């Protein structure tokens, strides 16, 4: 089967070059001279994105979601200054989030421009998924050059828990490409989703399996896009917050939740993540308002016991930016979510809802700070412009 049409025109190639530094897997970040190449391409991408907006002066159309993202990271800046922890990591996070958000926002100016952007993601995602699955089959103990411990195998996406962080937003963009270009989800995209499922089942990353299950359900189940359906954006967000408070914060043991998680061979602690949650909560109590700012991996390890944080997005957000940032984020999720309820039920709406709800579920037990900019581009750039995307969907 011919996987992807390689007859790319110049503009498609340009978008692939711009998108790649933002959308690359772990293996391409550590291979040989790639760290240097990636930094160079990232700088070039930022310059090109900046030029997209400079040539529009004095008329620049900022998505309100972009303003939200900027203000959110200003709160993180305040937290970092108060904690005396301002470092290059903060500027990197800011550049990635604002840069990618501006790129997505600019591409939405026309249907063709948006399709160029989506096709770049689609092209890269297909390559990543195929090569990652291939390496998993060829090197079941991990790619030798990047795997130090066979108990923690590393593949193209890194460890098995990292796959969903890159694949989920990629699936969202890939399915949107099909819907806007062909008015349906093509067989090759269902094949892509099947390969993703095989990847998750082969590695049995429970959080990823649950997230992919949620995404697939919303795409397939037509009534999930209806506002009165039990399975919708707001109900899943509220459920995520309730589970977070009851299970993570209050450590309430629910037989119902235990039975659901038990189907996947896990307990409510998700492989003893409760220790990390307790450490994070105790740390947050010492600095509840502004948190600790953007800290190095060593400092995070000292406070929480894991360089990747608490394995809970709500706690990681509160640790980094305090309750101020966490509350601001939650308010934003509810505020921008109103745009979904105004849009009539269609596949575009269900793909976006499925992506968001998959995140809500996975936030309970996985860290997402490293790929936060990909999430934010969906929550705060695409969702506020869902009517525009739906218009492109219905256009001939």
Walk me through this protein's architecture.
This protein is mostly helical. The chain has one domain (10-394). It contains 17 helices and no strands. Helix 4 (64-82) packs antiparallel against helix 16 (372-382). The model is unreliable at 1-7 (pLDDT under 50). This is O-antigen ligase-related domain-containing protein. InterPro entries: O-antigen_ligase-rel_domated, WaaL-like.
Strand fraction band?
Answer: under 5%
Summed up, the domain count is 1
List the helices and strands in order: HHHHHHHHHHHHHHHHH
Low-confidence stretches: 1-7
Give average pLDDT, whole number: 90
Percent helix range? 55-70%
Overall spatial form: globular
What integer value in Å does the Rg equal? Answer: 20 Å
Number of helices, where a helix is a run of at least 4 consecutive DSSP H or I residues: 17
Q: Structural class per helix/strand content? A: mainly alpha
Outline the fold blueprint.
Layout: H1 10-19, H2 27-30, H3 34-54, H4 64-82, H5 88-107, H6 111-138, H7 163-182, H8 187-203, H9 206-220, H10 233-249, H11 255-262, H12 274-286, H13 297-304, H14 313-342, H15 347-362, H16 372-382, H17 386-394
Helix pairs in contact: 1-6, 3-5, 4-5, 4-14, 4-16, 5-16, 6-7, 6-8, 7-8, 7-15, 8-9, 9-15, 10-14, 10-15, 12-14, 15-16
Would you kindly provide a brief summary of this structure?
The chain has helices at residues 10-19, 27-30, 34-54, 64-82, 88-107, 111-138, 163-182, 187-203, 206-220, 233-249, 255-262, 274-286, 297-304, 313-342, 347-362, 372-382, 386-394. With 396 residues, it is mainly α.
């Amino acid at each position: 089967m011919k996987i992807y049409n390689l007859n790319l025109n110049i503009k498609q190639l340009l978008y692939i070059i711009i998108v790649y530094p933002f959308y690359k897997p772990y293996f391409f970040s550590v291979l040989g001279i790639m760290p240097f190449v990636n930094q160079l391409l990232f700088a070039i991408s930022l310059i090109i994105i900046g030029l997209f907006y400079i040539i529009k002066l004095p008329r620049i159309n900022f998505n309100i979601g972009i303003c939200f993202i900027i203000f959110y990271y200003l709160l993180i800046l305040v937290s970092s200054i108060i904690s005396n922890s301002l470092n290059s990591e903060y500027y990197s996070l800011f550049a990635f989030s604002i840069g990618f958000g501006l790129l997505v926002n600019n591409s939405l100016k026309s249907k063709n421009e948006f399709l160029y952007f989506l096709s770049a993601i689609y092209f890269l995602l297909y390559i990543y998924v195929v090569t990652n699955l291939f390496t998993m089959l060829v090197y079941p103990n991990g790619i030798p050059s990047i795997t130090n411990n066979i108990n923690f195998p590393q593949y193209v996406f890194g460890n098995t828990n990292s796959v969903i962080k890159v694949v989920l937003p990629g699936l969202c963009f890939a399915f949107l490409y099909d819907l806007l270009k062909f008015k349906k989800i093509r067989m090759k995209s269902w094949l892509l989703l099947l390969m993703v499922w095989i990847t998750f089942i082969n590695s049995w990353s429970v959080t990823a399996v649950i997230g992919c299950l949620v995404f697939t359900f919303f795409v397939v189940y037509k009534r999930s896009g209806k506002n009165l359906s039990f399975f919708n954006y707001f109900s899943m967000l509220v459920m995520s917050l309730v589970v977070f408070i009851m299970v993570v914060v209050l450590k309430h043991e629910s037989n119902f939740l235990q039975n659901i998680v038990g189907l996947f061979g896990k307990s409510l602690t998700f492989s003893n993540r409760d220790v990390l949650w307790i450490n994070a909560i105790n740390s947050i109590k010492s600095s509840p308002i502004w948190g600790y700012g953007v800290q190095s991996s060593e400092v995070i390890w000292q406070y929480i016991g894991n360089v990747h944080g608490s394995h809970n997005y709500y706690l990681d957000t509160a640790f980094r930016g305090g309750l101020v940032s966490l509350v601001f984020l939650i308010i934003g999720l509810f505020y921008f979510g109103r745009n979904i309820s105004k849009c009539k039920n269609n596949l575009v709406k269900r793909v976006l809802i499925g992506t968001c709800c998959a995140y809500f579920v996975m936030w309970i037990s996985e860290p997402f700070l490293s790929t936060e900019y990909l999430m934010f581009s969906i929550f705060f750039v695409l969702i506020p412009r869902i009517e525009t995307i739906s218009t492109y969907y219905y256009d001939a």
